[in-house]
């Protein structure tokens, strides 16, 4: 697995999402940027989906077995709410972060733990 290419692809998606979030829906550039973003996400899934899904499945099995695994791109940025056994009753999220590529488990405002790093 080319970890550098993985991280570069994720950073490019983050950048494109940020660009898109700066535009109003009525902006003539919006549709083109949105299409570019979807193409980038599809390419990411083609190139790295199996690798990331395997990692996410392991994380879910260990930390939040009652929550279904979603497509890897869903975890990028704001993260995905999960039912974390380690933090019962708290709003927990799994988030895919970059530089380096890693998965972070957060619960509430205080708990934050890197549970996986790409290698």
Major sheet strand order: 1-2-3-4
The biggest beta sheet is recorded as: 4 strands, antiparallel
Uncertain spans: none
| DSSP strand content | 15-25%
Structure description:
- The N and C termini lie close together (8 Å).
- The radius of gyration is 15 Å and the shape is globular.
- It is α+β, with helices and mostly antiparallel strands and 119 residues long.
- 19% of the residues are buried.
- Helices cover 45% and strands 18% of the residues.
- It has a 4-stranded antiparallel beta sheet with strand order 1-2-3-4, covered by helices on one side.
- It has 2 helices and 4 strands; from the N terminus they run ααββββ.
- The protein has one domain.
Write the layout of secondary structure elements.
Elements: H1 3-21, H2 30-63, E1 80-82, E2 92-97, E3 102-107, E4 111-117
Helix pairs in contact: 1-2
């Amino acid at each position: 697995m080319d970890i550098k290419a993985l991280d570069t692809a994720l950073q490019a998606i983050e950048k494109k999402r940020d660009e898109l979030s700066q535009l109003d829906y009525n902006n003539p550039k919006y549709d083109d940027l949105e299409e570019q973003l979807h193409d980038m996400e599809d390419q990411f899934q083609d190139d790295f989906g199996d690798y990331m899904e395997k990692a996410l499945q392991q994380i879910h099995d260990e930390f939040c077995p009652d929550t279904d695994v979603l497509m890897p791109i869903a975890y990028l940025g704001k993260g995905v709410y999960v039912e974390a056994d380690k933090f019962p009753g708290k709003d927990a999220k799994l988030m895919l972060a970059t530089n380096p590529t890693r998965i972070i488990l957060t619960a509430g405002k205080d708990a934050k733990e890197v549970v996986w790093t790409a290698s």
